[in-house]
Amino acid sequence: MTSYAVGENAPTLDPAAVAAGVSLVAFDTLDSTNAEALRRAREGEAGPLWITAARQTAGRGRRGRAWTSAPGNLFASLLLSDPAPIPEASQISFVAALAVHDAVRAVAPALAGRLTLKWPNDLLCSGKKLAGILVEGETRRTLAVVVGIGINCLHHPDEALYPTTDLAAEGEPASAAAVFTALAAAMQARLAEWDRSRGFPSIRAAWLARGPAPGTPLRVRFEGTETAGAFESIDDHGNLLISGDEGVHKIAAGDVFPLAQPDALSSNRRRP
Questions:
Q1: 105 φψ region: left (φ > 0), alpha (ψ -120 to 50), beta (else)
Q2: Which pLDDT belongs to residue 271?
Q3: Where is each BPL/LPL catalytic domain found (predicted)?
Q4: Tens digits of per-residue pLDDT, 191-220?
Q5: Quick one: 177 and 99 in the same domain?
Q6: Which of 10, 102, 174, 200 could form a disulfide with 5 if both were Cys (CB 3.0 to 4.6 A apart)?
């Protein structure tokens, strides 16, 4: 069961996005904006198309985790067809992370100095998760990529894998509609900068400027195990690089957490 959003609180596209041929379908209630975008891709929709919902009944995050979907927060997905050659398409998670960072800075400028990015694409405010991104794709005749974005505007879960917050709790309340308008504009600008992966060096540099400082101790969980080390960088493909006693580890996927006590593990110490 779905219903369309109407009224003054319904999201609208930034004029720059409209001029670029981007469309928007806004729902009041939906199971999942990502699921709806994938359904439309299978039916032949090419996009670029934004899908938003005021409320999700089956929102999901990375690795199949449930995404808390309290009304008042932003739930949006962007459907793109053939955004880049398949080997480089995963870079879009960094493009989206920068767009989310840009949008939150635009609606809540007082938070600018407290915003950082957590690999690969979470937005943190004072070390707490403010927004998350789920990128999904399917290949039929062409590659369809869905960029799902959740931004905590008025609410955040009390219990989560990572400490969370929202704009209102940080003293900068903003409506989901206002955040979406800023997001659509920022995403359009960052996609143009990325230019089907040709501009990834610029995207990578911008992400690094907003990411953890070199040497930040991190713990990474992946495939039933974990490793720890000091943040080095991200490589030209977006892989996370951390250094430990055994050298530099390259990580393609995983959940990243800060280490409260940098000297607790020898693998956290940076090499000379």
A1: alpha
A2: 29
A3: 7-195
A4: 999 999 999 999 999 999 999 999 999 998
A5: yes
A6: 10
